[in-house]
Amino acid sequence: EIGSKVEGLKKDDEVVYKSYSGSKITLGGQEFLIVPVKDILAKIR
Hints:
The chain is mainly beta. The protein has one domain. 0% of the residues lie in helices and 38% in strands. The chain has a two-stranded antiparallel sheet. Keywords: Chaperone. This is Molecular chaperonin small subunit GroES.
């Protein structure tokens, strides 16, 4: 999901982010990467 304060992005958008950015978490056996908006470099679609 996308946080309510994030503008310009929606669920399933593909993005490019800084390689060192993000925190991996596992919930219910599924892995997620949490990336701060400031570290997103581009939206692909």
